[in-house]
Amino acid sequence: MTVTAAQVNELRNLTGAGIMDCKKALTEANGDVQAAIDFLRKKGAKVAELRAGRAAAEGVVVAKTSADNKKGVAVYLSCETDFVAKNEDFVKLAVSIADAALAAGSKTADEVLALSLGNATVKDVVQEKVSAIGELINVSAYASIEGESVIAYNHMGNKIGVLVALNKGLNDAVATVGKDVAMQIAAMNPLAVDASGVAPEILEREKTIALEKAAASGKPANILEKIAESAVNSYIKENTLLTQPFVKDGSKTVAQVLGGAESGLTVIAFSRVERGAK
Q1: Within a domain: residue 9?
Q2: How many structural domains is the chain composed of?
Q3: How is 159-226 classified by DSSP, letter by letter?
Q4: Residue 102, domain extent
Q5: SS3 call for 65
Q6: Residue range 13-29, pLDDT digits in tens
Q7: CA distance 14 to 80
Q8: CB neighbours of 112 closer than 8 A, spacing ≥ 6?
Q9: In a domain, 249, yes or no
Q10: What is the largest CA-CA distance in the chain?
């Protein structure tokens, strides 16, 4: 069978074995990754035995903006242990990857992995770290965003990175409220900016749940639909950014706080990348 580059890369990340060894193992295993790991182990690849099946759920998230504050990126460089995540060189690598992605305008994690970092690609530099440290390391999540102004916020020792794109140019008021909103996103993890960004199937699911709960509680059939609609509206209010109560002043919504900082100011998009994300 034909072995793809993606399959080889996956096996390299899992085992730390060389490209040709991974390709041979996958060919022998007809593309079955677990069988390929077993093949490598049988051939004496001790690294495969150490890494197979381990989870890379630690690491750091780095959110940064361009010099003109109109673009932003968030990179999650994952590893297996907190010890490695706190290593200065590991953090520097995550920052350098974010810088390269920002300069190149990368849109996807695959594009980031293909970027040059010194004399090698990001993918190869990461693989060198895998071999040197003995842990699974990867660019496990990536986000990019653009706007008239973009605010980046790094939360809880780089466990969460947030990017907020606003519709107005940057000034002191926009920067201040933008950071507050980014902190809101980090804490409350909204689904979308507003109701239009929530998938229809999610709203339908919430409506179905509300209908069944109301019916089970003995509510009259003629008011079930109104009860369900009210429940969906409450769900939207609690789970979309602009209608959420502002964490610093629950008497106002996020939309009201934005408008109070500058007339017409609003969020056009946001990204939230959390350690452990896939």
Answers
A1: yes
A2: 2
A3: TEEEEEEESS---HHHHHHHHHHHHHHHHH--SBSSGGGS-HHHHHHHHHHHHHHHHHTT--GGGHHH
A4: 58-193+262-274
A5: strand
A6: 777 778 888 899 999 99
A7: 12
A8: 75, 97, 100, 101, 106, 122, 139, 142
A9: no
A10: 71
Contacts of 234 (CB under 8 A, 6+ apart): none
122 within some domain: yes
Cα 157 to chain centroid, rounded: 16
246 falls within a domain: no
**272 φ/ψ angles, rounded to the nearest 5 degrees:** -130, 120
Alpha-carbon gap, residue 79 to 84, rounded angstroms: 7
What's the average model confidence in pLDDT over 54-73? Answer: 92
Is residue 188 domain-shared with residue 87, that is, in the same domain? yes
Q: Which residues contact 45 (CB under 8 A, 6 or more apart)?
A: 15, 17, 21
**Same domain membership, residue 65 and residue 46:** no
What DSSP designation does 115 have? S
With a pLDDT cut of 90, the percent of the chain lying above it is 72
pLDDT of residue 262: 97
Same domain, yes or no: 157 and 94: yes
Which CATH number belongs to the domain containing residue 25 in this structure? 1.10.8.10
For 232, other C-beta atoms within 10 Å of its C-beta total 20
CB 274 within 8 A of CB 61: yes
pLDDT tens across 133-156, in order?
A: 878 899 999 999 999 999 999 998
| φ and ψ at residue 273, rounded to 5 degrees | -115, 125
